[in-house]
Amino acid sequence: MELWSKLRNLDAYPKVNEDFYSRTLSGGLITILSSLAILLLLFSEIRTYHHPLVSLPFDVFASDPF
């Protein structure tokens, strides 16, 4: 069980003490706008993946009239 308790105490992203950061309105707006941009790009990529634009450009050169 000692290994299990060590794994439970392992924290890859420890919390920062509240004294070292401050929440601002501009930071919140940047977070919201960047999240919306990421979601827009994600849905755009999913839509393009499910509905690809297939274009088969080929020309028939009719040099012989027969």
UniProtKB/TrEMBL annotation:
The keyword Thylakoid does not apply. The keyword Transmembrane applies. One of its GO terms (cellular component) is COPII-coated ER to Golgi transport vesicle. The chain crosses the membrane at residues 20-43. Residues 7-53 form the Endoplasmic reticulum vesicle transporter N-terminal domain. It holds the Pfam family ERGIC_N. Signal peptide: none annotated. This is Endoplasmic reticulum vesicle transporter N-terminal domain-containing protein. It comes from Setaria viridis.
